[in-house]
Amino acid sequence: YSSFMDALRDAKALMTTSARPTSIETIDDTVLQLAMEDFVWDSVAAFFPATGSTPIRGINLIEFNDDDPERLAERVQAFTDHLSQDPTVARLGYTLAEGRPQIQKVYAMRKRSVGLLGNVQGEKRPIAFVEDTAVPPEHLADFISEFRAALDARKLSYGMFGHVDAGVLHVRPALDMKDPEQEKLIREISDQVADLTQKYGGLLWGEHGKGVRSEYGPKFFGELYPSLQRVKAAFDPHNQLNPGKIASPAEGSELIAKDSDPELLTVDGVTLRGQLDRTIDERAWQAYDAAVYCNGNGACYNYDVDDPMCPSWKATRDRVHSPKGRASLMREWLRLQSQAGIDVVEESRKKKAENGWGFIKSFPLRVANTLSRKQHHDYSHQVYDAMAGCLACKSCAGQCPIKVNVPQFRSQFLEVYHGRYLRPLRDYIIGGTEFMLPTLAKVAPLYNALLNQRWVDSLMRKGLGMSDSPQLSRASVKKQLRAWGVAEATPTSLALLTEQQRANSVIIVQDAFTSHFEAKLVLDVVELLSRLNLRVFVMPFSANGKPLQVQGFLGAFERTAEKQAKRLRALAEFDVPMVGIDPAMTLTYRQEYVKALGREQVPNVLMLQEWLATRINTLAPRQLNLTDPGFKLLSHCTEKTNAPGSPKAWQQVFAAFGLELELMATGCCGMSGTYGHETRNVATSKTIYAQSWQPQVEAEQNTGKLLATGYSCRSQVKRYSAQTLPHPLQALLALLTPVSHPYPNNMQERATK
Predict the structure, then answer these.
(1) Are strands 168-175 and 158-163 parallel, antiparallel or unpaired?
(2) What distances in angstroms separate CA 376 from CA 340, 372, 373, 687, one per listed residue?
(3) How much is the pLDDT for 622?
(4) Which of 53, 437, 526, 601 could share a disulfide with 516, CB 3.0–4.6 Å?
């Protein structure tokens, strides 16, 4: 519909059609727009096609079900015939969702409406206080028209969705509850909407109970209210059970027969979260926006082991180890810091700017604080314990309706926390991994031999807190590429290309993990792309900085990011696409880099499938006849939650070669970078792996068919299932090898052209 009111008024008419719809749900343009910006839209976009120049401002979800399939089909046909023939309402169109899988997708989008409303930008956030009004369905459109007028008169934004067939509509006006003046609107709007619902013969609480809105009970129940008081007195004479809600206990002369009961709670007489939030320093509030906007919707309390969010919650069932739990702890930590006069923003700035001498100078104080940790209570330690359990997989950042980003505020917290307390040596090892690997790779045989020694393994586990460290690749990416004649991506080499050559070229941006632990994968990617007649350049290895960011070394991360971004900008001038192999490392460029440096400072680095999907028409050799093994894809959780269209891009790439690729529903593998290698996390990591990945990997029917996009995922599978899962491009290369020229000869031919 082109307007929400059109959708509402049409719903009233549609309920009375001879087809007898089972239910009608409605969603307004505010919620619809937020859904379009959410990962859920990828699964339902086909049901809401573009309608030309007229934007969609409202939708109705009309459900039909029946015990008889034939009768169901007849009802649906009669209904669609009515839509086609009825000229009384200007509808932009309709689509059909048939069968449980399709219907579940649509309702999953509808279910996220509550959370999505909380993701509006700015300090004003949707607040639930008049959100479940109910009036007779035949009066709903007129009621909502007046309701909207009341909110519009106060210049408030809001979203609406709900059960039109039942006359229940969810409305959440956006208010900044930190502002005392806006807090007063709770009373003002509640009174007006209560009167409005009575006018139309409805209720203020149509679905979610009275709660602190019970003060309106006497007015709605009238002469029946004393009966409620007698029931309350019979079962709870001392008013101990939920006091102040529904009714007060009273008998005889104490009975209330008026419009109010002074014993009941009032909407503006209870403590509101905004009253605590306004005590947080405004600069700290803005700096920790990834945490403070959590509205408690609880989408992260997810029991589905085949859904990425949230692995630590699913493994522990401890709410402290959920995004909601961590955000709540962080909000309270910020409040306590502000209350104590501590400027966490300034502490962070100083820590980022700290040089070697500053680190040494602050060392004695951090030692003293650490040694006296047990003698002095510091709420920060509770927050630290909660943050330590986070995998930094970023599924919350992609799947939470509010986009609560635990890894982001976790890093911010760790930076400040370790400005006061010592870091474990483990943190420095993880943070410095990218810088150490090139040197260690030069002595890979010796390094690997040492890792196989029991005493070294014991030292790593007990002394450094690291377990099951992976072995370095024996092959050298740099040496092999030089032997094959693959050029390094430098401004000099790219400047020699013609415009046509640039259009057929690609730059591989190396990452520390695939280049040093999976060198064969890097070489296989180069080989496959070369077989596809693409000119491949490989950017010389340099640190990405993600391990630094994860561990809260934010100053070092920003300096590393500035250097890497400068190198990328130098290459980006030549308009040759840049792609990364590991999804988590590659996504760092478009997320953490952009936050640290600004969007204009960071060139676009694509994931492999994103770039390959743009070349579908010219990707595969013609008349290619490949045997289809029926591959199944296990995507990295960061990848599929933060770039939700990326798994389908892999399907498009495989389809170009005439191959099917099934997208498997999996949760987190439990490795997530270095999380699974930290000794303190090994047990939880194993539990997470056993929940979702292990059954898929070890299922007999999946043998030889599984592909994995993430380095950490493949590493976890190798550790716990003793299997080596190929990358999708390695699978394609294996199929293409029998029908292609031997790679070195082909590469040398191309290199001379």
Answers:
(1) antiparallel
(2) 15, 6, 6, 34
(3) 63
(4) 437
Count CB atoms within 10 A of the CB of residue 682.
Answer: 18
**Chain centre to alpha carbon of residue 504:** 34
Residues 218, 225: contact at Cβ < 8 Å? yes
pTM tops 0.70: yes
199-227 as b/e: b if 16+ CB within 10 A: ebebbbbbeeebebbbbbbbbbeeeebbe
Pairwise CA distance, residues 13 & 16, whole Å: 6
Judge contact between 76 and 64, C-beta under 8 A: yes
What does residue 708 show for φ and ψ, rounded to 5 degrees?
-130, 135
Exposure of 699 in the CB half-sphere (CA atoms within 13 A): 13
Q: Phi/psi at 171 (nearest 5 deg)?
A: -130, 125
- Is CATH 3.40.462.10 the classification given to domain 4-199? yes
- What is residue 647's predicted lDDT score, i.e. its pLDDT? 93
Q: Do the beta carbons of residue 739 and residue 657 sit within 8 Å? A: no
> CA–CA separation, 265 vs 271, rounded Å?
11
Which residue intervals of the chain bear CATH 3.40.462.10? 4-199
For residues 427 and 465, give the distance between their C-alpha atoms in angstroms, rounded to a whole number. Answer: 9
**Crossing angle (nearest 10°) for helices 477-484 and 519-531:** 20
Rounded CA gap, 415 and 421, in Å?
A: 10
Dihedral sign for Cα 521, 577, 658, 753, please: negative
CA angle 669, 672, 677 (to 5 degrees): 100
Question: 470: Cβ–Cβ under 8 A, 6 or more apart, which residues?
Answer: 517, 677, 715
Q: Which of 605, 585, 654, 649 is nearest to 507 (CA)?
A: 605
Q: What is the residue whose two structure tokens read 């409202």?
A: 58
